[in-house]
Every structure is written in C-alpha cells, then in structure tokens.
Design a protein that fits this description.
By secondary structure, this protein is α+β, with helices and mostly antiparallel strands. Helix content is about 35%, strand content about 15%. A 5-stranded mixed sheet has the order 2-1-5-3-4, with helices on one face.
Length: about 150
C-alpha cells in the first residue's frame, strides 16, 4: 500500500502503485485543486509540486512519488488565508473558468521558489506549457509578477 505525503500529512492510499497520482489525489484524498484536463501531460491542469518541482500528476504514478513531499493547490493556502500568490490571482482577477488555474499557480509557485523576482519574459516562459482557453494569460502573468513584487 503506497504512502503519500500530501500537503504535510501522510496518507495510506488503497490503490495500485501504477495508479495515476491525479486519481489518488482527487478520488482517495478528495483534493480537487488538480484537474483532469487531457490525461496526456499536455495541458498542465493537473500540475502539483513533488519535492518543490512541478509534475503533471495525470502521468505520474503514485508509486513513483511515494515518500516524496507532494503539494497541491490546497497546500498553498485556504479560502480564509490564501497564499500571496493565490491572493495575487484573486486581486488581478486572473481566472475565468478556473480550470487551468490550478496548474498555472502550481507552476508559478515553483518558479517563484526558484526565482523570487522573475522578469515578465521568465514568467511567460515558465507558464508556456499550460493551456488556458479563456484568454486570461495576461492577467495571470500580472498576478505572478504582483506576487513577486509583494514577496
């Protein structure tokens, strides 16, 4: 039985080791931040952090991440106390449907941990592999830059 460390808590997951991490997070742990988008690691909606690095959870198995620290959107903050990055997304109204925003925030969190003061170009390059159909990308870039500025 795989043991997952998610958002600072340890969980015994009743699933096979080749189960996609996304399924365990959503179905077994009831964490709805990561979304199922494409199932092919192409859209980024399922992105979580594994030991601080962005990982597409739709193609990562629970066996491959067992014992590592997994952080989901829920692990960054809460509705009552959002993280600085989450608050910047709220302040910039940087989402519409909200489907892609999980992956974009998680990728931005990894970027800011590695580079606390990125340029606009660095933010755009970091978020390049995430698909947003609503057209809110410019507001998302502003939100990441705002969070960096408020650091």
């Amino acid at each position: 039985m795989p043991v997952l460390k998610v958002n600072g808590r340890t969980h015994d997951v009743q699933a096979a080791e080749d189960t996609p991490l996304l399924y365990a997070l959503r179905n077994d742990l009831a964490l709805n931040g990561p979304k199922f988008g494409c199932g092919l690691s192409q859209c980024g909606s399922c992105t979580v952090l594994v030991d601080g690095q962005p990982v597409r959870s739709c193609v990562s198995t629970i066996g491959s991440v067992a014992g590592q620290e997994i952080t989901t959107l829920e692990g960054l903050g809460s509705a009552d106390k959002p993280s600085k990055l989450q608050q910047a997304f709220i302040d910039e109204q940087a989402m519409q449907c909200g489907y892609c925003v999980n992956g974009i925030i998680m990728r931005a969190q990894a970027l800011l941990a590695q580079n606390p003061k990125p340029t606009e170009r660095e933010v755009r390059v970091a978020l390049d592999g995430h698909l947003c159909r609503c057209g809110a990308q410019n507001r998302m870039v502003r939100a990441v830059l705002r969070a960096a500025q408020e650091g």
